Structure formats: C-alpha cells, structure tokens
Amino acid sequence: MKQQAGFTIPELLVTIVFMAFAFIGVTELYLSIQHIQEETSYVQVASHAAQTEIESLRNSNYNSLTIGQNINFSSSLPTMLPGPRTGTVVVTQPMSGLVRVDVTVAYSDHGISRQVELSSLIGVIGISQ
Q1: Which residue of 28, 50, 85, 99 could cross-link 107, Cys pair, CB 3.0 to 4.6 Å?
Q2: Boundaries of domain holding 35
Q3: Does residue 49 lie within any of the structural domains?
Q4: ∠44-46-50 over CA atoms, to 5°?
C-alpha cells in the first residue's frame, strides 16, 4: 500500500475557517485604529482652533471684551472638522481687571456630538495695553 502525502479535506476546511477568522480580526483592528486616529485628529484640530481664538482675544484690546458677551467664530473654524460645527466664546469677569474667556468648539463625529472647551484669563495689562 502506497502512502499519500498531503492534507485531508477536513484539515483544509479547518485551516480556511481559522484563516478567515484571523483575517476578520486583523481587519477589525485596522479599522478601529483608523477610527481612533480620525477622532484624535478632530480633537487636535478643535483644540488648535480654540487656542487660536484665545490668542486672538489676548492680542485684542482688553477694553473691547464686554462682560456677558457671546462671540461666535464658527465661520473661522477649519473645514476639516465635520459639521455642523460651531465655535463660541463667553466672556465673564471673575474680578476687577481680569476677564475670563470660555471657548467651546463643537462638532459632530459620525452623528455623535463632541466638543472641546478651553478657558483663559486675560488681564487688563497685556500686549495691547
């Protein structure tokens, strides 16, 4: 009797099923990593936009900041942020000679509302004084 070398059909089927599950797992991992990178990129862009707005307010005249003022800078937000996107600033005065600006950048990430909030204090003595 002659010995034949090779795999049986059940062994091949088990191998194919195992390889399919491994491929699906690697694909899911890759897609998850891509999604996390995209989310991180959005947070970075929104944070940069908020920081830019704070710097713009710091460089403006202190007296031009009105207490209780709401500033909308949505039109200057980067188009990379998914819409609808909004940028707002609320100006308050925690003490005399000092204003607080609360900057919020909101956007929608695959139907989920996300926002980045930054605050800063701006004193009466500054660059434009």
Answers
A1: 85
A2: 9-123
A3: yes
A4: 115
Residue in this structure with the two tokens 């390889």, named with its chain if needed: 19
Token duo for residue 113: 């509302």
pLDDT tens-digit profile of 3-27? Answer: 777 788 999 999 999 999 999 999 9
> What's the predicted TM-score (pTM) here?
0.75
Is there a contact between 87 and 103 (Cβ–Cβ < 8 Å)? yes
Euclidean distance between CA atoms 100 and 62, whole angstroms: 11
Q: The tokens of 97 are what? A: 């000679």
What are the tens digits of pLDDT across the range 30-60? 999 999 999 999 999 999 999 999 999 888 8
DSSP output for the chain = -----S--HHHHHHHHHHHHHHHHHHHHHHHHHHHHHHHHHHHHHHHHHHHHHHHHHHHS-GGG--TT-EEE-GGGS-TTSPSS-EEEEEEEEEETTEEEEEEEEEEEETTEEEEEEEEEEEESSSTT-
